[in-house]
Amino acid sequence: MANLGGTYSLGGELPVTRMGYGAMQLAGPGVWGPPRDHDAAVAVLREAVERGVTHIDTSDYYGPHTVNAVIKEALHPYPEPLVIVTKVGARRSEDKGWPAALSAEELTQAVHDNLRNLGVDALDVVNLRLSDATGGYPVAMSLAEPFGVLADLREQGLIRHLGVSHVTAEQLDEAKSIAPVVCVQNQYNLAHRESDDLVDKCAAEGIAFVPYFPLGGFSPLQSGLLDDCAARLGATPMQVALAWLLQRSPSMLLIPGTSSPAHLRENLAAAELDLPADVLADLDRIGAA
To answer: Catalytic residue positions?
Structure first.
């Protein structure tokens, strides 16, 4: 079994594999509707857990509702080490958009939807996702009211731990003044490193940083540099990008998603990839390209 990058403890009590699995791609096209191949979706979830993954990232607005239903079908009753992290703060509109859903009523309903569709009495981790009315981010706003709603639900025992998504360092500090924060989920990869300082802040403060879109938004030049590094190592570009993230910070947790068991195995193998100094130097050029 692969080492999956070792483990990291969320909140000091939930150890998870640093190489996790993101379930968003299990929904249909546009993250809408049921999986294209239901049996394959169930199979990839089961294989992830069989291979030792103990961190699955999801949301009840994936589908909406369909991804959590597949997770429940595939894995419930959940094995003891498995940690399921979900997120609230958005909803799906009829045009398949992602508008914000940050009112107390919407957040409370979202938490109860996740509880019901995952089939659990309490959610391991819930991330508050910030966005504007059209789903855009980052957004300059106080998160005190919506995060306070989740903090209250945590006090009621419906949530074990809290995280935040699409936040600045200042918004993270604001959240921490309300309740403990165990993870931050922002876009971050070799090419898009606007959260560099936040990555380091999280590591210093014992907070997991969970990047999404590990290959999102690369220019042709950046992709060419990554391809060259991957060829030198006999690996795929995705594997090199994931390995770089694991080496970037000890508190980095990865959630690459796929609906293919073969692609899942390829992603997990990235945790075994050691990036030598010369390759790391060349990869660092991608952020400046």
So the answer is: 62
Domains of the chain from N-terminus onward: 15-288 (3.20.20.100)
Cα–Cα distance measured from residue 191 to residue 45, given in angstroms and rounded to the nearest whole number: 29
Residue pair 175/181 in contact (Cβ under 8 Å)? The answer is: yes
Residues of the chain with pLDDT > 90: what percent? Answer: 93
- Residues 185-226: pLDDT tens digits? 999 999 999 999 999 999 999 999 999 999 888 999 999 999
Burial of 114 (0-12, 13-18, 19+ CB in 10 A): buried
Q: Which tokens is 269 given? A: 């193998």
Handedness of CA 254, 260, 264, 266 (dihedral sign): negative
CA distances from residue 29 to 208, 268, 270 in whole angstroms, order as listed = 30, 24, 26
Q: Give the C-alpha distances (Å, rounded to integers) separating 213 from 8, 25, 37, 192, 255.
A: 21, 12, 23, 10, 9
Residue 86's beta-bridge partner residues? 126
